[in-house]
Amino acid sequence: MLPAGIGMQEYRVSPRERLVLSTIIDLYVATGEPVSSQAVARLFENREGLSSATVRNVMAALGEAGLLDQPHTSAGRVPTPLAFRYHVAQLQQSAHSGSPAAANLSDERREQIEDSFSGITSPLQYLERTSHVLAALSSGLGIAAATSPIQQFLEHIHFSRLSAGRVLAVLVTRAGAVQDRLLALDRDLSYDDLELAARYLNENFRGWPMERIRTEVTRRIEAERAEYQQRLRALEDLCRQGALASDPATPTIYVEGMANLLAGELDRERLRQMLIALEAKQQLVELLNAYVDARQHDVRVIVGLEGQSIPSMPELVLIGAPARIGAENMGTVAVIAPTRMQYREMMQAVSYIARLSDRVFSERLAADRITDVPPQ
């Protein structure tokens, strides 16, 4: 059997076998039940050369080739991971050749997707919304990961004194992300100190990028230390302990739809182990990086997930693509779902959402460079 992601060039599947296999996959995806030769034959009863006996022989050959499996002696056949890989390869070949079978998303589905992204104003918002949209479309996991730390702009910050020398910083970005940071200080700050520091940041730096705020706060502390000694001393302590710091070691990644997979018919214990592994964001990023190349332009489909940090899951499929803004790679959008899925529609949806990011933001780039630059 071929490893995950490899095509079927070594296998010679005849046109008749291809037709029967495609029909079996469609029936299995629709019903979730093993497919009998009689069910296939009924669909071809008016087609010469595809009698029940012929269909049985074709299905037997497909079984010997590792493309069909028979769960029980008296049951019908189900497609194997290898069959789904072959099916995906056929869909991709049709897409590249411009075949009518590779029709794009329906107008209704495109409008549904575009409506889901209305009101988006930042890449982080786009990625977060993507995880929700893909989870809903796939009934699986919707995943969106930023390639690198995305510049974040301050909307509001609040400090809460927890105990002597311990402060909780709650930072809200313009993208709507809320970040909690526990700060351990060398000295105790009063409620008034924290209120003054928060007010100073909110009144002077709302809408500024975090990196620029840290630089400007340092400059002002040196220039205005004598005039604002008490206020800026507290602010200096808070900033030194990371109140406005970004953590490049923590990937920005959004995952939605864990319950979708748990509600399915997969191996519950192995799935539980995999989901626990994927809760560690770094492992999920490694999984995406292993399968989705930022340089690729087409959607990538991997049938059968496996990796050093996760249990092997041949019953799961990853469909992913890089999302770009112009020539810059913004991140990766992906779906992890059971093999029993509508491949053509999900491949098209992932591809469309990945390309939609460029359309949403490219027209705003010139304006953003002007409006988001803080005053000098």
From TrEMBL:
Keywords noted in UniProt: Repressor, Stress response, Transcription, Transcription regulation
Ranges for domain Heat-inducible transcription repressor HrcA C-terminal: 126-347
Domain of life assignment: Bacteria
Domain Winged helix-turn-helix transcription repressor HrcA DNA-binding intervals: 14-85
Pfam families hit by this protein: HrcA, WHD_HrcA
InterPro entries: GAF-like_dom_sf (IPR029016), HrcA (IPR002571), HrcA_C (IPR021153), WH-like_DNA-bd_sf (IPR036388), WH_DNA-bd_sf (IPR036390), WHTH_HrcA_DNA-bd (IPR005104), WHTH_transcript_rep_HrcA_IDD (IPR023120)
Family the entry assigns: Belongs to the HrcA family.
PANTHER family per the UniProt record, alphabetical: HEAT-INDUCIBLE TRANSCRIPTION REPRESSOR HRCA
Function summary: Negative regulator of class I heat shock genes (grpE-dnaK-dnaJ and groELS operons). Prevents heat-shock induction of these operons.
HAMAP family for the chain: HrcA
Name used for this protein in its record: Heat-inducible transcription repressor HrcA
